[in-house]
Amino acid sequence: MPEKERDLTITERSGEKLRSIFSRILTTPPGFVVMHSSFSNLMPPKRFETAFMDVVAEYKKLGWTWVFPAFTFSFCQGKSFHLTKSRSETGIAADLILARMRGAVRTRHPVYSFVAVGSGVGVGSASVHINLMD
């Protein structure tokens, strides 16, 4: 089997596995999903990224709002923070969603920011009011 075809098969299986997991967890009417964003132990990142983005988009269409930690602890050591350019230091999902998914926004807190996408986010607003610290 050619490598490109094999990669597609792995991506499809990854998507099926994710759908199976999320279908068991997300059983109530659509609401908020707060998901840790480190994938390092799940599968090769490039293959997983496509499947993950597809599944998040599917659940977003069903009305779910996804929230991912995008913490930047380096701000505490004096590094600058930029709302769209500072990379998450807690995993790649927040960066992927912010860069690739229409309507994704990042909260303004320089240390404990979150990336959110979905119907629960005021898309286009200057600030996003998601307080997950309460």
What features would you describe in this structure?
The chain is an alpha+beta fold. It has one domain (3-117). The protein contains three helices and four strands; from the N terminus they run αβαβαββ. Strands 1-2-4-3 form a four-stranded mixed beta sheet, covered by helices on one side.
Report the major sheet: 4 strands, mixed
Radius of gyration: 16 Å
The SSE string, one letter per element, is HEHEHEE
Spans where pLDDT lies below 50 across 5 or more residues: 123-134
In total, how many domains does the architecture comprise?
Answer: 1
What is the mean pLDDT?
80
| Percentage of residues in strands | 5-15%
Q: DSSP helix count? A: 3
- Helix content estimate: 25-40%
Tertiary shape: globular
| Gap between N and C termini | 51 Å
The structure class reads alpha+beta
Tally the beta strands: 4
Strand order of the largest sheet: 1-2-4-3
